[in-house]
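Below is one record:
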Amino acid sequence: MRRLGFLVLVLGVGCAGRGGLEAETMGWIRVETEDLIIRTDLSQGKAVELAKNYQRLRTAIAENELPCAFERSNVPMEFVVLKEPSDFEDLAGPHTRGFSAHPPSSRLDTKLQLVMDGREAARNTQLFVHELTHGAVAICFPGGRPWLHEGLASFYETARIESGELVLGMPAYGFVQMTNVEPMFDIYPVHANGAEVWILPSRLLPDFDELRNMDATEFYFLGKRRSVSDLRQRTAHYAGAWLAVHILQLGDSTLSGRFTTYLTGLARGENDDRAWARSFAGVDVASRCQNYLDVDYKMEARPVAAATPRQPSVHPMPQVEVALLRSRLYSWWSEEEAATALEYLDFAASKSSTSSDLMLHMAAFHLEAGRALDGWSWLERAVEQAPADPQVAATAILWFAGSDDATSERARLDAWAQTLRGSAQTAFQFVELGEYFVRVAGDPRSGFEYLQKSLTLDATSWRTYALMGEALAEVGKSEAAIQAYYTAIALTGHGSPELRASLKERIDRLEHR
């Protein structure tokens, strides 16, 4: 996530009552292209033009860069673009232009949303490409540390299409020898060649070896009330990360091959330190970065196919769908933000109290809030309301298959699986059918077949590969199971060390059989 500005981030939550919720959920549309879904309250004309521009740039980047993400990703990236600045600041605070909203619960079939300020989204493509790259990097190199995630996102954010070519390497940061300037005024943006470039004193840049070893807490200054000095230094972390990736990609031909080797190791699930040591043994990258401050930055151009994106399709969004979407943009683990999310959920209930999707949201929300009995009650209401709904059946399997009640609820699990066998259509539904056969029915071969069907619809789910690993291990195919687990690790996403450790334990057990 790229956060701009140097003031303390303050989250503001709360809605303007039922009348405010009514207005906030009206006039929304869903715009779809080949690879993108944009949900927005922008006007249709602006939203369509935005989608076309974004699709064109996304296609150009996918043709040339990060094949480990774009070849694997067969599902569209999803965006939320908010028209009103106040709506966006309620979610992200001031001086932020975009962020990744992860699903607020693992008990829901929802996708990560890249949330953007409509003013910035329409003004330039840097924010879009920055967040697009974050999504791709999370798929390719989840084990990479913050410097790599932010460095790659900043490197690609200035990409542009010129004369039929994708141009890479336009600086996102500039460095000057600056003295006798008040700290509040020595970091500032300038506009150069259509891009926003942040200027800062070179003395603020951290040593690369120090930067490379920072965890998320150190890089982003998490878990504390950040001072102005902290925020200035955090900006320097972003700038140092961009500088390092730029030299490793374009600035020094002796390093680019090593960088590719390092990234390949991460994509295969290799430990970051091991991948770095194997790729850069004996190379002083920190000194190269320091010397790079005194040279002109290089740029490269790659040919782009001339295919014209198809006209985006536009679909009105019902208020219930909008309210559920907006509830998911808040953290359900934060008491203050959860209160706002619940306002949207209650509003959705006032519009359609019989919606099974609403009931599934309510079930997951209460479970995440520590009200397990309420959560299970809402799930039972959904099951009673829509027993033949494949999404309800799949969610019920997700909840019950891994619970202590799996044995006593075997008859109902069998019935839900039977529903899915005749009506499953989505990746999530096939995954849960696979989970039923692997973990409940004791039929890993059938489970593996359904998991493979899921991959034809969504090849980016770590959970699908983890279940495939279980199925393969059960039938004695240890090597294939290990590879499936490594793929799962590579898809877990930045910021999930506990999950990756759990998957690595499964690999270790198979390797020591």
Remarks:
- Residues 1-15 have pLDDT under 50 and may be disordered.
- The domain at 17-303 is CATH 1.10.390 (Neutral Protease; domain 2).
- Residues 87 and 375 are 29 Å apart (CA to CA).
